[in-house]
């Protein structure tokens, strides 16, 4: 099989920060067989690898001295059903949001709260994408992946993925080892609206909706996101730049004593999630810039490329914010995007 590999390839159009960085080698992967062919090719197989989806959770701080495998495989369909769920399957390269809209067109609810998240289906399990009270794991059934060490494909069910908040096995034991080929979701036949997130409830109420359909929840989420988050086509960004830090009740109580307006959310295990955006905002960073890198005016958790920033500019701004938040609140913010 001849692989259409391109060399010294600009990744600028393929990362939502819009950062210029070159890949030593680049392959647009349009069939899963191409991954086996990469494995068989001694020269390509020896290179460091980066599996790329929509580039919406990446910070390119340098040229990538290896092979970028840009997953562009397509295909969505109903994969079966049982008494509780309809199973839907999508290939790695499918746009996440288009896939969500397709499920809604089929009359299947479950993914509507995850509308308008950028990126591809294949990346969605990596950090267990989440928004507005729902995480991918709530509807996840299984995935197929290609193992670059063995050259075999394997299937993982939900338990094997070890999903957590912005976390999965792909950030630990399987880091840099596998390419996800497709993902199957179990969408409930007994659908129930998830409107526990205050913003969603308020948006629906403002539209006069009392018994929302999946489509109406999707519309509400799209409206909220469009208001709050910058469109990467206009302003380079990767969504939330830091995870919301999780602290013990003791830590949260101590912070609350000093900062009565602290925003925190109780978790099922007794810990508390702090709103990183609030912490950054309190440090006075909202709307500020450091060189060409900036903090979004409407959401302090989102770092933006004001035009021509390098990955290092963004990383420097992130480090300055981390230092201020640590000094003021004693909390270390952990970046969400993957640094290359
Ligand atoms: P990429 O950025 O291409 O890759 C991210 C990581 O996944 C990399 O480590 C990459 O190597 C790996 N990867 C990608 N595809 C594969 C594959 N097929 N197999 C193996 N590894 C792979 N995230 C949320 O969770 N919730 C949000 O609400 C949210 N909102 C966002 C809003 C904006 C405006 C932006 C820009 C981003 C937002 N994100 C959010 C982050 C991002 O959209 C998600 O993390 C998304 O799943 C990344 O998908 P991607 O295809 O762009 O991945
Ligand atoms: N806040 C401020 N100032 C700010 C930003 C936020 O005070 O500048 C406060 C808000 O007032 C609110 C709280 O912080 O009380 C939380 O803000 P928001 O509802 O916007 O959500 P978030 O915690 O900042 C998280 C996710 C988003 C996800 C939304 C909706 C993380 C790291 N981020 O943001 O995910 O879309 O909730 O569920 O968990 C992403 O991961 O890239 C992402 C965008």
Helix/strand layout:
Blueprint: E1 6-10, E2 22-29, H1 33-40, H2 42-45, E3 49-52, E4 58-59, E5 64-71, E6 76-81, E7 85-91, H3 96-105, E8 130-131, E9 134-135, E10 140-147, E11 153-157, H4 158-161, E12 178-188, H5 198-206, H6 214-228, E13 236-240, E14 246-247, H7 249-258, E15 264-266, E16 272-274, H8 276-282, E17 289-290, E18 293-295, E19 302-305, H9 311-329, E20 338-339
Parallel strand pairs: 2-5, 3-5, 4-20
Antiparallel strand pairs: 1-2, 6-7, 7-12, 8-9, 10-11, 10-12, 13-19, 14-16, 15-16, 17-18, 18-19
Helix pairs in contact: 5-6
The structure holds flavin-adenine dinucleotide (FAD) and uridine-diphosphate-2(N-acetylglucosaminyl) butyric acid.
How would you describe the shape? globular
Question: Helicity range of the residues?
Answer: 25-40%
- The run of helices and strands is EEHHEEEEEHEEEEHEHHEEHEEHEEEHE
**Rg estimate, integer Å:** 21 Å
Give a list of the ligands.
flavin-adenine dinucleotide, uridine-diphosphate-2(N-acetylglucosaminyl) butyric acid
CATH topology of the largest domain: Uridine Diphospho-n-acetylenolpyruvylglucosamine Reductase, domain 3
Strand content: 25-35%
CATH architecture of the largest domain: 2-Layer Sandwich
Record field, number of beta strands: 20
Number of domains: 3
Strand order of the largest sheet: 6-7-12-10-11
Mean of pLDDT: 97
Question: What quaternary form is this?
Answer: single chain
The CATH class of the largest domain? Alpha Beta
Q: What is the CA–CA distance across the termini?
A: 29 Å
Low-confidence stretches: none
Largest sheet: 5 strands, antiparallel
